[in-house]
Amino acid sequence: MKVLVINCGSSSLKYQLMDMTDESVLCKGVIERIGMKINGGEKNVVIKKDDAKAEYDKELLTHTDAFNEVKYILCESEYKVVDSFDEIDAIGHRIVQGGPDYKQSVLVDEKVAKDIEDLSPLAPLHNPAHIQGYKACLNVVGPDVPQVFVFDTAFHATMPPKAYMFAVPYEYYEKYKVRRYGAHGTSHKFVSLRVADKMGKKPEDIKVITCHLGNGSSVTAVEYGKVVDTSMGLTPLDGFMMGTRSGGVDPSVVTFIMDKEGFTPKEMDTVLNKKSGVMAISGISSDDRDICAAQNEGNERAILAHEMQAYQIAKFIGAYTAAMNGVDAIVFTGGIGENGAWLRSKICSYLGYLGVRINEDINLKTVKGAEAELTKESDSVRVFILATNEELMIARDTKAIAEALKK
Questions:
Q1: Residue 40 pLDDT class (50, 70, 90 cuts)
Q2: Backbone torsions φ then ψ of 262, nearest 5 degrees
Q3: By three-state DSSP, how is residue 140 classified?
Q4: Taking burial as the number of CB atoms within 10 A of a residue's CB, which of 84, 212, 248, 257 is the most buried?
Q5: For residue 39, what are the contacts with CB-CB under 8 A and spacing of at least 6?
């Protein structure tokens, strides 16, 4: 079975075609700047096949145009891996917000698509783009190819009410489903299973804290294979500071700034989601590579941004250790989690009370995509760097649902 995994942003489309007989990647890539003018020299289409990589520029006005380009790449270009799209058995989509009702991956129909579109206020940067991606696929391949939605929120569905409820009037939960949902669940699930395998344990026998750190970041407490708490809340804005997101702040800060600046709710949402976080504190960039470079040059605001980030993450790890009454393993994953040696080291420096002492030589030498343990097998709390693979988790769920249709 061949499964195409799609992950759409508002102006981007990531794709990965997998052969599920051995879970190998046949071809993958990304198309960026959808609907935008392409200036000279900008390579917005990327193709990766085996060890080969190609980049070129092409103006694509809609997600349907972008998906047609994916179809051309896979079926007709010099990097083609199938003779026809008919060889692709199913399409799996990453969906950030599934709300309280979608607790597992589902086959998409008109009702499911409408439900997810209606949840857009809970993930305004993500769900609308996901629906665009789904409709683009539908326009190109028609209704006969099964499409599956795999939800970032699904893995967090095991959280108890004491963890997911907010202390606001209960009627808002009843009327609007205001509660904690979490995000990055597909990644947290993958690495929580992977770390159990690395430790030679069953997931139901260990307590794990998974740290998915990237431009968007979250920390999750996984007790005996089930999520008991996670840092992101009603939307992916909550938690700790991220690339351009504020993370959790005193709610009065929001109303105070709105009053002083005369901001509308939409304008304040833009401030918190797109103009805050590491970018705001550093005054430089939301890209961790830029922050590291500035920090190495002694830039005080870059140093402060990193110090704040590490401190806030360490506090979540401490809180979740208390919530689970202990922890067996801590995992770093995601772009920064896998690349950020300084941040990993600084976070772990706060965890001496757990007996955490990482091997700094291994920490500094580990590169993105590699797996490494920073502690000893005999340590009571073990620390790992593990590469996440959300696409594989999406492909596995999609394959299972597509196969069930044939029975």
A1: low
A2: 70, 30
A3: helix
A4: 212
A5: none
What the block records as the tokens of 256 is 């105070």
Q: Give Cβ neighbours of residue 251 (< 8 Å, ≥ 6 apart).
A: none
At residue 373, the 3 state secondary structure works out as: strand
- Give me the mean pLDDT over the 216-235 stretch: 96
pTM attached to this predicted model: 0.90
Residue 102 to residue 124: CA distance in whole angstroms: 18
Distance CA(247)–CA(277), nearest Å, equals: 7
Confidence bin at 299 (pLDDT 50/70/90): very high
Nearest to 14 by CA among 52, 54, 70: 70
Angle between helices 341-349 and 300-323 (to 10 degrees): 50
Nearest-10 crossing angle of helices 127-141, 110-118: 160
Residue that wins the pLDDT comparison between 219 and 40:
219
| Closest to 390 measured CA to CA, from 214, 209, 208, 135 | 214
First CA to last CA distance, the chain: 15
Sign of CA dihedral 268, 7, 50, 47: negative
CA distance 308 to 318: 15
Cα dihedral sign for 335, 341, 343, 349? positive
Where on the phi/psi map is residue 280: left (φ > 0), alpha (ψ -120 to 50), or beta? alpha
Residue 270, helix vs strand vs coil: helix
> Which residues are marked as active site?
152
Nearest by Cα to 135 from 52, 37, 63: 63
